[in-house]
Amino acid sequence: MAYVTDSDNGYVQHKNINGVDFSITYRPTDVLVHQELMDTTSKEELDSLRNKYGKYMYFNLSISKNNKEVLNSINSSRADFGAMVNQLAFGMGDKVHLIGKHRDTVELLDYIYPREYGMGGATTMMFVYPREEKVLNDDFFQFTIEDIGLKTGEVGFKIPSKPINNEPKLNFSTR
């Protein structure tokens, strides 16, 4: 994970807009495979997991304000709080977009928003997209987040394709 979280390697980017911190991290296939592996895994099981996760691109989006989760960092009414919970749990598919260099939009397959009830330092969600050649054949693509009520406007990240196309492989032979 140290390699993935080192911004020099092209898998993570950060921005601060109006006091709101945004971070986007690409999760390479083998990082996801490693999370699912048991102490003993056969080559067949390893290949199956790599095939399962390798068809998709996984991005973690973290948003925080004052090192707090979004819900715990804003002072608002119950109605505003409820609207933000609804937005984060059910509406982010309409607010987050992956767009190719030539304006090709990649369809979001799924996203996960785990509530941490104030125990985390950021609101972190995982977004899953199909691994599409039309986007990965270009030098870069855009990951954009429309304003979700934090007064940031649209926030965009220019994601280079090369690190994703050449993502590192972990050596599982020592397990």
Précis, in short:
The chain is of the alpha+beta class. 29% of the residues lie in helices and 32% in strands. Helix 2 (29-36) crosses helix 3.
In percent, how much strand structure appears in the residues? 25-35%
Radius of gyration: 17 Å
Beta strand count: 10
What's the overall average pLDDT, rounded?
A: 88
Total helices: the number is: 7
Task: Describe the 3D structure.
Helix content is 29%, strand content 32%. It is an alpha+beta fold. It is globular. The two termini are 17 Å apart.
Provide the fold topology.
Elements: H1 2-5, E1 12-17, E2 20-27, H2 29-36, H3 43-54, E3 56-65, E4 68-69, H4 70-73, H5 78-91, E5 96-100, E6 105-106, E7 110-112, E8 123-130, H6 133-136, E9 140-145, E10 155-160, H7 161-165
Antiparallel strand pairs: 1-2, 2-3, 3-4, 3-8, 5-6, 5-9, 7-8, 9-10
Helix pairs in contact: 2-3
List keywords for this structure.
175 residues; alpha+beta; six-stranded antiparallel β-sheet; four-stranded antiparallel β-sheet; 7 helices; 10 strands; 29% helix; globular
